[in-house]
Amino acid sequence: MISDRELVARITAVDDQDALRLLVERHQGAVRGFLRRLLAGDEGTADDLAQETFILAYRKLHTLKSGGSLVSWLHSIAYRQFLQHGRKHARQTVMAEPPERGHDPRGAVEAEVTIPRLMALLSEEQRACMTLAYAAGMSHPEISGVTGFPLGTVKSHIDRGKRKLQEWLREYDHSIPGKPGHDGKRRPNRA
Amino acid sequence: MPDPFDETLEEMLAYPEKDSSEDLFVVDVMRRVRAERRRRRVILFLFGGIGALFGVAGAVMLSGAIGQLFTGVLSSTVLMQLPLFAVAAIAFYIWVMNDDLAIGR
After folding, report:
1. Which of A51, A71, A92 is the last residue of a domain?
2. Contact map slice: A 21-60 vs B, CB within 8 A
3. Domains in chain A: how many in total?
4. ipTM of the complex
């Protein structure tokens, strides 16, 4: 499989469109997923922002430092697109509408209905940090690099977001193992 | 000590599986990239053409007496307006080609 680095080199050197297509195919799931989580399920806007993210990445690809992580860089652009979108359109507050009792957000069928509502319970910063940590599998320093938050703030957003979700799940009779207190060391790549 | 709730969160927050909209998304992005490249070429051609025209005009004008260039052909008002137009054109060019200079890592 061709590495991201090689694809980037081909695009920046000879404007290789096949390499660009491959790069978009490879990373669109993560970028769209991230934006969908940030926008608490507004899939249309999330996909528009994801398109903007890839267009902007194409324009700025030459600025990606050699050795820099393409995934983090794309997420970083996506996050800035999200913030810019919020500034441009006086953001409509997403009303937290917790799912009804008995719904299990871990079930594959209900997840796509329930998770956006659960995400709406969190602040934007918490949504960003939680998604990057648990869906994208990034380490805390990586999240700090993507969002621009200091490391301590990242940890605090994750801890608070986690506590909120845990409280909600407990309240709605889901069996939750353990207590909050994300130590950031569970995954091999997490700091 | 690993937190068992982390696993629950990973399961809950995981991105959805591949869906049918993915191919369409890639097609849309590539279509916009093509349009972007076309626009760049048009802008480069346009500004290159304007530059070439000015170059030719400058060469023609410079072929005459330098004094006549500044006093006879161009009035002082035009000479004062020219830098303004030049700055406006450069600003427009930068805006079109780099609409977000802040993102560079």
Report:
1. A92
2. 21, 24-25, 28-30, 32-34, 36-37, 47, 50-51, 54-56, 58-60
3. 2
4. 0.71
Count of beta carbons in the 10 Å neighbourhood of residue A104: 16
Q: Which residues 89-148 of chain A have a CB within 8 Å of chain B? A: 105-106, 111-112, 115, 118, 130-131, 134-135
Most confident among A92-96, A185-189, B69-73 (mean pLDDT): B69-73
The count of other CB atoms within 10 Å of the CB of residue B42 is 10
Provide the pLDDT confidence category of residue A182 given band limits of 50, 70 and 90. very low
Please calculate the CA angle A186-A188-A190 and round it to the nearest 5 degrees: 70
pTM higher than 0.80, yes or no? no
How do residues B55-96 score in pLDDT, each as one tens digit? 888 777 666 656 566 666 677 777 778 888 888 898 888 777
Query: Same domain, yes or no, for A191 and A108?
Result: yes
List the structure tokens of A60: 């700025």
